[in-house]
Amino acid sequence: MQSQCKEQLDGKNVPMMLDGWSNIHNEPVVCVSVTTSDGDSYLTETVDTSGHAHTAEYLQEVATSAIISTEQRYSCKVGTFVTDNASNMVKMRRQLTSDSVTTDTNIISYGCSAHYLNLLAKDIEIPGVKEHIVQIVKYFRNTHLPAAWYKFTGGKKLVLPQEVRWNTIPDSLQCYLEIWTMILKVCEDHRDTINGTIAMKVQNINIKRNAEDYLKRMKPIAVALDKVQSDSCKLSDAVEVWKALKRDMDSLMPSIVTHKVQDRYKQALTAAHYLANLMDPRYRGINLSKDEVDAGLELCSLDYTSCLPTVINFSAEAGPFKPFMFTEEVLKAISPLTWWESQKSALESDVIVLCRKILGGVASSAGVERIFSTFGFVHSKVRNRLGTVKAGKLVFFIQTP
């Protein structure tokens, strides 16, 4: 299985993701994975961090060790590095980019767009709405007679929001609004039996209106989240997703909400995102502001100086790039990286290396989050005697495509 993994990663420039969780014994575990351009994720490191505080310095040691061992074991190059946005992770990423071990390869590090969208969802929460709906849904799900009456009306499965699962809040709001007339009828038909507090909450039109307003805020974020947590969503795509979200929120929401969207937008997108968007043949930086274009080109001039003339020529659709390469039919038929690879005979090798790195970077660390789901299945209450190392090996076997 290791040889199969090496065969898939050999010579590739890959994005790396790092995240932590607690196993069945409540022991802290850090997992590291890489993703290929085809969207296949490979678990490369499982680290039991028991006895170590998750400081930025310690996490930097874990990350540096993971980068070195992954490159040596699988003969690949780590081009980008993404984590969640906890303060220790943010500090670790800053230190990692200045680390003498990693600066030779100019690893690009940034925060997970999916986590930033999740934080944005919390920023614009309407207080109290979720708590009311949770109380109502739990009552009709867990109380025998009301549950039976609700089921008799033809009601659908009830959805509760979960803090650890993205997009369950809009799903729960959507479900509540769809079943509201059914549970209102149950409350009316069985007013002598239904809990009075629950009946009052169901009949309270303000709670329903607030739920509608809350869902209106959450829906564009839910759509954006679904896009960025895909392994096929790259840095260049993330820019377009955030731009679309800003446009949607600007047209629908009051300024107090749009300001919060703008704040998270600035945190999520870096100069590397802008450079990736500039170099993506589908986008070519068309939707970027002048400041964003300048930030992307400045990064290129500082860290990839020899590539700057080519990037500028590409933006202008000048030589050596032919006009037919920018037609809609071509851009839809092939991936951005394949587009650049097809031109490598006319380009400097440094340009192709940059393309593999910048266009291969994934928008989020959702790939390693999905590995945690497999970890939870393997290291369960039934198989609770497994050690972290053995559980990690089993997850590797299950996860490897």
Q: How does this model look, in words?
A:
There is one protein chain. With 401 residues, the protein is α/β, with parallel strands linked by helices. It has 3 domains: 2-112 and 365-399, Nucleotidyltransferase, domain 5 (2-Layer Sandwich); 123-224, no CATH class; 234-358, no CATH class. It is 60% helix and 9% strand. The protein contains 20 helices and 5 strands. It has helices spanning 2-9, 56-74, 87-97, 100-103, 113-123, 129-142, 144-152, 168-189, 196-203, 205-228, 235-252, 255-268, 271-279, 290-303, 308-315, 328-333, 336-341, 349-358, 366-378, 388-399, and strands at 13-22, 28-35, 41-48, 77-83, 108-111. The chain has a 5-stranded mixed β-sheet with strand order 3-2-1-4-5, sandwiched between helices. A hairpin with a 5-residue loop joins strand 1 (13-22) and strand 2 (28-35). Helix 6 (129-142) crosses helix 7 (144-152). The longest helix has 24 residues, at 205-228. The protein is globular. The mean pLDDT is 88. Its main location: nucleus. InterPro entries: DUF659, HATC_C_dom, RNaseH-like_sf, ZnF_BED_domain_contain.
